[in-house]
User: What shape does this take?
Amino acid sequence: MSDLLWQPAKERVENANVTSFRRWVNDKYSLNLLDFTALYDWSVAEIEQFWPAIIEFCNLKAETWGERVLIDGDKMPGAQFFPDARLNFAQNLLVRDDNTDALVFWGEDKVKSRLSWAELNIAVSRFSQALRAEGVKKGDRVCGYMPNMSETVIAMLATAAIGATWSSASPDFGVQGVVDRFGQIEPTVMITVDGYHYNGKQHDIREKVRDVVERIDSLRKVVIVAYAFDGSDTTGIRNAIGYEAFLSPFEGEKITFEQVEFNHPLYVMFSSGTTGKPKCIVHGTGGTLLKQVSEHVLHCDVAPGDRVFYFTTCGWMMWNWLMAGLAAGATLLLYDGSPFYPSGNILFDYADAEGMTLFGTSAKYIDALAKAELKPRETHDLSTVRAMTSTGSPLAPESFDYVYRDIKEDIHLASISGGTDILGCFVLASPVLPVKRGVIQTRALGVAVDVFNDDGKPVRNEKGELVCTKPFPSMPVGFWNDPDGSRYHAAYFDRFDNIWCHGDYVELDDEGGMVIYGRSDATLNPGGVRIGTAEIYRQVEKLPEIQESIVIGQDWDNDVRVILFVVLRENYELDTALIDKIKKQIRNNCTPRHVPAKVIAVADIPRTKSGKITELAVRDVVHGRPVKNQEALANPTALELFSNLSDLKK
Assistant: This one.
C-alpha cells in the first residue's frame, strides 16, 4: 500500500510501554503473544481480560472495580462495562503531588505560566470546595467558555472530583453557538475569561459572556478569569465573580473525591452542529478513563516525566484527550492562540523551550507548514520530540513526506482517527510498528475495528465502512434529552444491526494499517460509484497554485456531478490552463470518475471551530437548503461564496 518511512530502533521497541504490557499479559494469563499484532488479536478476542489488564497495569484507582467486567456484552447499544465499579476520574489524573511541572501554559507570546503538581492539587482542592459551597453536587453540570489554559484544567478536575459533569467551548464561539450547546444541559456554574489573545490581538468577550448568561437561566455563578485584561470590569454580567475571589475563602486541604458509577456522566461533548442544533453526547467516567489511558500509555508511549502537547482548543475533543496524559504522570503543555503568531515557528519554539516529547496537532496544520515552506529541522533542535500525532482529517501522503523531510527524520509520526463520539481513537499509533506513507498504523487495542462492504461483509484491501463489531468502554452513555435512546441508536446502529457504524469510508490492509478516504455522508456518488473526498484533496493540494480545496457532489441531471472549489495561493488565477492541470492531476492519480465537472475559485472555505472543512454545509448552500446552525462555524460568512453561483446552473 505504501512506502516505509520510519522503523523504530530495536532499543525503542524493547523499552516501549506496550512491549512491557505484552510481556506482563503473557505472564498474567500464561500466553505467548509474540508481537503487537498478536496482542491486538488477543485484546479484541478477550475484551473481558484486556480491560481489567489495563486497570491493573496502569494502576488505575477505584473504591471498587466490582466482580463483573461486562454485562449484556452481545448488545450494542446496551452493553455495560464494570457495572459495580465506584471510582473518580480526577483522582486518577492527580497521580503526583511534587514540585515538578504538571502544567505549562503559553498564550501566544503574551502569557507564560507553569504549575507544579503540588500547586495543581491545591488549586483543584480550592476550586472543588468553592463549587461545593455554591451547592454544586454529583450530577450537576459545570461548563467552561475557556481557552486551553491552566485554569480550565483546574476547573475540569474540580468538577470531576465532586462528581459533577464538565462541558466546554472555546471563547471564539459566538453567543448562539454557546447557548445552543450549554443551554441544552442547564449548567449551574460557568467559568470563563474576560478575553483572549489571537494573532497578536486582544479579543474582549465580556459582552458575549453577558449575553450568554442572560440566555441560560440555570447559571447561578459565573467565574471570570483575568486573561486578556485585568478581569475587574464584569460589565453587568449576572452572578459574576472573579476567579481569585471565588477561591479566596478556601485553603488547599486534602481533596474529597466523590466515588461515582462507571457510566456516571463525566463529559458532555457536542457534535459540530452544522446540520442543526448540536447533539449532546454524554461520556461516562470509567469508559473515558480506560480508553484514553490505554491510548496515552500503550499507543503513544507516554510515561512519567514526558511532556505532552496537543494543539487544540476547548471546543475540540482532543482537549479532553490531552487531559488524560496526567494519568500517565506526564506534564501537559498547553497553548492558546494562533499557531502562526508571531511566526510559524512558535510551536517549535515551545517544543525546544519545554522539552516536548509528544507533539500533537492537526493534518491542516502540517499542510499549512508545508505550504509555508517552513523547515523546522533546519531552525530548531527538536531532539526531545519522539512522536508527532495528527488528526482532524486524513493526513495526506505528501504530509508524511514533509514531516520526515523538513521536521525530523527520526520521529514516530502517527495519523490517528476516532472522534468526539468515542472520546478516543479507532485507529492510531503504535511505537513498535513501522510508519508507512499515507497509512494509519494500527487499530486501537481492545476495539474490534473492521471494514464492511455494503452487504455487511468484512473486507480487506477494499474500500468500505469503518465499523466496530464488539462493545468497548468509551461508547457514549447516550445523548442528552434522548430518553428512549432512539437518536443514539440512529446515529451509529441503524446501518448494521448490533454493529457500530462510524461513518468513515476506509480501507484496511492485511497488516492492520488503514487509509481513510473521508466521511461516508460526504462520499461522492457520480454514476453510483462511491468516491472519498480525501482522494481528491490529496491530489489537488499537491499543486503549488492551490492553497486549499473543498469538493462536493451536486445533484444534476438525475445523477451527481463532482464540483471542486479551490482557494488559490497569492498571485495565481484560475484560468483554463490551471483547470486543465487540476483535472489532469486528478485523472492521472485517481480515476476519470474523480475528475470534477466544474472547478471554481473561491476566496475562503467554511470550517468548524475545530478546523474541519464543512462539505455538508457547502452542499446544502449549493442546493439552496438552509444551513441550520451557522454558529458552529468559525467563518460562517464564507458560506455566502457558494450561494447562487452561475457556473453551477449550467
Remarks:
- The domain at 114-261 is CATH 3.40.50.980 (Rossmann fold).
- The mean pLDDT is 93.
